[in-house]
Task: inverse folding
């Protein structure tokens, strides 16, 4: 048992409580300082709200699964909203996406401005009219589906567009017009096709009913199916016919049903002054393309093949084919002048399609392939991170003191040295006043061009730096002298925390369960988001799928659910760890055999009584995080307005707002953590626990500051050391496997693939955070238990429960006096 408090300590505690607010803690007669046994469900209304919210979340998931079509995101779609490669549709055998016009507004400028990839088509194979022999059509041409057009030639023949292999058109149909005829009859026309819901209509002519063909009154271009040819039969997706009362056309079927391209809504697109087609039209001038990773099905976007390895002369061949088109244009109009075909413009088109290839499926498929390839290395690095985290946590008991004292004295010496150098450079102190030996030493040992003389440039800036450095040094020295006696207490609490965790090894396993729960939540969020994102509706005017306001609201609620759920998991973990550590601190016998499994006991207690308290604190954090995300989104939108490089006001507002919200979130996390500790010890509600914790910490503010600074330093060092060390080991491992030896890996570790290394870095950092956050929570819990134990000891006959070694330190390092507190306050806040 511990010692009773002396009268002097009692008087000091009561005076401190009176000056800081609140009262010294007292136990009711017959009570003892122990974990509350008579508990009840805390913050029950908030738990009910939390459960109701998750019922809504599951409803959103059901809506997304019923309405969404994930293949929309993975495979892509054409300009009419048809999903490429979709089973049981006419596009099942057309899984690839081809962009007929990926060129920017000014292809020669080398920018991507004006690139519009909404004109997309589903194709079976990537068009490549340069492959094969010299019988390829010249100039290049392609139609999305075969259709017929009634010509204006004297013989009244019907032109067949896109009837050749690969959607090509027989250019001999146009005679001397050549490419000009292709532009007139194929590029500037659109077929109208039978829709799935067309009915066979009847018309009464001269007293007799006659059936129209294929419901032509309802046909439209959006109904066309790329694999259907013009037909008089009732085939959905086929081109319809009209004027059934005449024998004009082929075989008496009538005239093909077509529309003239609307040049306003479907503008003509030119490159090198040559018509390349009308946006959202059916016929165009294609470029040679190929499918990257063909055979492995990694990509679904066709990429321009200009000077590729397979055909190094493809750019020149494409230029020659375009020259034929230009020659036909000159025949039609002698004033026509074609612009020279430049390889830069073709490369810009290539870059635009590559940007489109970074869509969901292409990116996801590549990343999954990288993870699959290095999955065992990543798993091994996870084990390394776990081992390093455990080792670091246990070694803190030995390493804490040397590291902290080295950092404190190192910072002091560095600050003093910097102040001295800036003082010389600012002219406050003349180097001539230094002893000759020192001056001589400095002049001989300092690098060439560096001296202690006054600065030759930026003198005002150097003076300001010297003043600020001097102020910082003075303040740091005073705080250093005040805080130094408390460092022993902080280090002892850290040692006690390490002893506590080593006595309860199951507590260190809890972060693994917490991490698994977080991963499950994240996977659930991504799957549902995948379905929600694919539940948009197709806008025929924009030629893309859009999210309406209701769907956007559902996605926002779903995002908030992720934030709330993750914060709730972390809150449950903090309450469990706090309860286990408090149980250990208050146990008379702290051996593993005597305390049993406090982590399991605390988990059961938390899930039974305090899930509502976790819901309250996690809700507050989730709201702040949601506000931060919304703020970032709107700031990003504002940054896109006007000149990005000169939008200084938005940059300043963004920085200030982000800083304020980050400070708010950190402060609330601090309040939540300490409220959870009070909840774990006393069974308090969230608000009562936050109030009690704040008053308790306020009465021990200097101790709190010292402990938080030291634990923050160690957590920072530990998290980044573990993450970076594990990532380096993983990079070396990957390169060694790829190059066939550890020696080769050492020489080329910088060439390791980036994504697997980033995954290793993120996972190892998360593992380090999980373990060190447990250690940090243990320290805060032990500190609160000690402060409560100290205040309870003011009662007569109370025996302290603080561990002996820690109590010995406290007896030799008493709490800060009022004079010390006032001195530091006056220094930090002038006028007080």
Result:
């Amino acid at each position: 048992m511990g010692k009773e408090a002396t009268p002097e300590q009692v008087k000091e505690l009561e005076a401190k409580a009176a000056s800081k607010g609140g009262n010294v803690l007292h136990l009711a007669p017959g009570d003892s300082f122990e974990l509350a046994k008579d508990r009840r469900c805390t913050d029950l209304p908030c738990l009910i709200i939390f459960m109701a919210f998750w019922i809504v979340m599951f409803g959103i998931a059901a809506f997304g699964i019923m309405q969404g079509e994930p293949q929309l995101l993975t495979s892509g779609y054409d300009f009419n909203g048809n999903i490429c490669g979709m089973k049981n549709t006419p596009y099942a055998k057309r899984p690839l996406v081809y962009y007929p016009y990926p060129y920017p507004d000014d292809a020669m400028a080398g920018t991507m401005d004006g690139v519009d990839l909404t004109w997309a088509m589903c194709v079976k194979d990537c068009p490549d009219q340069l492959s094969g022999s010299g019988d390829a059509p010249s100039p290049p041409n392609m139609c999305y589906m075969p259709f017929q057009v009634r010509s204006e030639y004297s013989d009244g023949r019907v032109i067949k567009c896109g009837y050749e292999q690969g959607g090509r058109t027989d250019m001999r149909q146009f005679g001397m017009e050549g490419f000009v005829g292709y532009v007139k009859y194929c590029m500037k026309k659109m077929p109208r096709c039978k829709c799935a819901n067309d009915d066979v209509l009847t018309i009464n002519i001269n007293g007799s009913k006659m059936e129209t063909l294929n419901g032509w009154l309802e046909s439209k271009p959006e109904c066309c199916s790329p694999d259907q040819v013009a037909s008089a039969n009732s085939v959905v997706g086929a081109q319809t016919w009209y004027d059934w009362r005449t024998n004009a056309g082929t075989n008496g079927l009538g005239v093909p049903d077509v529309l003239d391209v609307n040049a306003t809504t479907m503008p003509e697109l030119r490159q090198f002054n040559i018509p390349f087609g009308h946006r959202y039209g059916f016929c165009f001038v294609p470029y040679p393309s190929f499918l990257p990773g063909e055979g492995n099905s990694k990509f679904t976007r066709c990429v321009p093949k200009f000077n590729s390895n397979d055909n190094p002369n493809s750019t020149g061949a494409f230029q020659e084919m375009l020259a034929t088109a230009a020659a036909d244009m000159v025949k039609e109009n002698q004033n026509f002048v074609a612009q020279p075909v430049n390889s830069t413009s073709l490369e810009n088109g290539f870059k635009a399609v590559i940007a489109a290839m970074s869509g969901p499926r292409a990116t996801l498929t590549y990343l999954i392939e990288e993870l699959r390839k290095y999955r065992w290395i990543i798993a091994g690095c996870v084990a390394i991170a776990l081992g390093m985290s455990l080792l670091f946590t246990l070694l803190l008991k030995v390493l804490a003191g040397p590291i902290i004292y080295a950092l404190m004295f190192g910072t002091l010496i560095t600050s003093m040295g910097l102040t001295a150098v800036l003082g010389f450079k600012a002219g406050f102190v003349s180097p001539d006043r230094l002893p000759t030996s020192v001056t001589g030493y400095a002049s001989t040992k300092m690098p060439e061009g560096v001296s202690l003389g006054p600065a030759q440039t930026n003198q005002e800036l150097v003076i300001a730096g010297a003043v600020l450095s001097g102020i910082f040094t003075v303040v740091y020295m005073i705080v250093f002298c005040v805080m130094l006696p408390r460092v022993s207490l902080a280090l002892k609490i850290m040692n006690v925390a390490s002893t506590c965790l080593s006595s309860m090894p199951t507590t260190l396993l809890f972060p693994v369960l917490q991490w698994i729960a977080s991963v499950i939540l994240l996977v659930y969020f991504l799957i549902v988001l995948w379905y929600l994102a694919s539940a948009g509706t197709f806008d025929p005017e924009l030629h893309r799928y859009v999210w309406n306001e209701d769907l956007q609201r559902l996605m926002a609620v779903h995002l908030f659910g992720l934030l709330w759920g993750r914060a709730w998991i972390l809150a449950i973990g903090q309450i469990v760890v706090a309860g286990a550590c408090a149980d250990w601190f208050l146990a008379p016998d702290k051996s593993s055999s005597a305390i049993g499994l406090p982590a399991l006991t605390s988990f059961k207690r938390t899930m039974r009584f305090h899930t509502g308290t976790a819901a309250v604190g996690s809700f507050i954090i989730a709201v702040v995080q949601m506000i931060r995300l919304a703020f970032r989104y709107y700031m990003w939108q504002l940054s896109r307005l006007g000149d990005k490089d000169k939008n200084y006001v938005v940059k300043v507002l963004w920085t200030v707002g982000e800083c304020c919200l980050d400070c708010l979130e950190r402060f609330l996390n601090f309040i939540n953590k300490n409220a959870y500790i009070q909840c774990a010890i006393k069974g308090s509600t969230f608000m009562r626990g936050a109030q009690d914790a704040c008053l308790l910490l306020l009465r021990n503010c200097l101790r709190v500051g010292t402990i938080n600074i030291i634990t923050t330093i160690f957590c920072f060092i530990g998290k980044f050391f573990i993450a970076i060390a594990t990532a380096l080991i993983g990079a070396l491992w990957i390169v060694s496997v790829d190059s066939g030896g550890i020696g080769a890996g050492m020489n080329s570790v910088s060439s390791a693939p980036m994504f697997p290394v980033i995954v290793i870095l993120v996972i190892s950092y998360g593992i380090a955070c999980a373990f060190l956050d447990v250690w940090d929570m243990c320290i805060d819990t032990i500190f609160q238990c000690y402060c409560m134990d100290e205040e309870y000891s003011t009662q007569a006959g109370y025996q302290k429960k603080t561990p002996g070694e820690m109590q010995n330190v406290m007896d030799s390092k008493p709490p800060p006096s009022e004079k010390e507190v006032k001195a530091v306050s006056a220094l930090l806040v002038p006028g007080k």
